[in-house]
Amino acid sequence: MIWNPTKECMPREQLRELQGKRLQKLVAYVYHNVPFYRHKMQEMDLMPEDIRGIDDIVKLPFTTKQDLRDNYPYGLMAAPKSEVVRVHASSGTTGNPTIVGYTRKDLAVWSEVMSRCLSAYGVTRDDTFSVSYGYGLFTGGLGAHYGVENLGATVIPASTGNTEKHVRLIRDLRITGIACTPSYALYLAEVVERMGIKKEELGLRIGAFGAEPWTEHMRQEIQERLGLKGYNIYGLSEIMGPGVSFECQEQHGSHINEDHFYPEIIDPVTLEPLPAGQQGELVFTTLTKEGMPLLRYRTKDLTSLMPGECPCGRTSVRMTPIMGRSDDMLIIRGINVFPSQVESVILSMKEFEPRYMLVVDRVNNLDTLQVQVEVRRDYFNDDIGAMLNLKKALYDKLKSVLSISADVKLMEPNSIARSQGKSQRVIDKRVLV
Ligand code: ADP
Ligand code: K
Ligand code: ZN
């Protein structure tokens, strides 16, 4: 189902025209209401009138997370306090949280884009949908919550925690859909299994998974264990929260709600825009936001855009799965390593749980990488020979994918801490010295 065909299936030319109009309005708005942007534009000798269409976006200054921190808490707010009705904060995965503010219209746009996502997954008014992102300052809980309500499905504000009670609710209330992090979905599957409940007793059909990177293997694993179909949802608090992009039934890239969030891909080093299809850093301009609109915000997320038509009928551009953040890329002995690469190796082997931890250290001036991974109960035993073979098999695979050798440490089932929100998978001891 397409929630808003007028916007979601708009002919590209018309869409670009709309984006251009919105950009012109936005630039004039921030120029007059946000001293930070006015000064930046003045430094660049740029007037709002110089922006005549969406192609002129490249003339505008970038915004970084550091800019948000420097202007903490409300320095980048464009709307007067009387118009701001809600405040959230980013989860602070990579440092101090940053604050964002929403006007009533911003919240309406957010609900609208969330409803587009949920409709694309096949959620209807007859569904009962559990929101198991954390409620609170984090945008996941409330963002998904209002989207479900706006669509007209029944929302169960389960949040995280008390997972056994949640499982019983899923069964007893015939909950059909769930929004949560992929790591929480796996944890939920474990609890369901531990409680001796069969996935068929649960009526789950749809999962909206996001807030952290996940792989195709992880999708298969969750789908098999919970008996549902898992769809990607992407977003970040600086731009809105969940609902910036979403997978349709084709599950071939995530459609960006482009009439509200204009995407660009840049080279993170030269800051030059990259041609379509090339991988780089994702940058967003909030075309319609009133509370805290941002020009060319550098997300640090690495992806590429997929131009071209999607068989679903939506005309919006799609993005490939996030392969990591430019700031969670580890440089080990000069080689770039992404936690997601390690994850896909681990999940491609049936002996392992999708539970792992990367420990990076420096010993005698040499970077070391240790991969700790949980062995599945069925494969964990006292047979030292078998364990050594398993260790060697993982070592070899990691070496061929990462091009560096990692020390492998096999862990007992259930020994790595479970996460209910975003999981922490890297300990870099080098930054502690
Ligand atoms: P923080 O940057 O503090 O984690 P947020 O809570 O706003 O703040 O999280 C947004 C970030 O979460 C994104 O920039 C991205 O790195 C990650 N993220 C969100 N959804 C997805 C997704 N579907 N796939 C991969 N990463 C995601
Ligand atoms: K994150
Ligand atoms: Zn599509």
UniProtKB/TrEMBL annotation:
UniProtKB keywords: Ligase, Nucleotide-binding
Pathway(s) of this molecule: Aromatic compound metabolism; phenylacetate degradation
Similarity comment: Belongs to the phenylacetyl-CoA ligase family.
Catalytic activity: 2-phenylacetate + ATP + CoA = phenylacetyl-CoA + AMP + diphosphate
Domain AMP-dependent ligase C-terminal: 334-430
EC number: 6.2.1.30
The keyword Coiled coil appears for this protein: no
One GO-annotated biological process of the protein: phenylacetate catabolic process
AMP-dependent synthetase/ligase domain sequence ranges: 83-284
Pfam families named among the record's database cross-references: AMP-binding, AMP-binding_C_2
Subunit structure: Monomer.
Entry keyword Nucleotide-binding: yes
Functional note: Catalyzes the activation of phenylacetic acid (PA) to phenylacetyl-CoA (PA-CoA).
Protein name: Phenylacetate-coenzyme A ligase
GO molecular function, one term: phenylacetate-CoA ligase activity
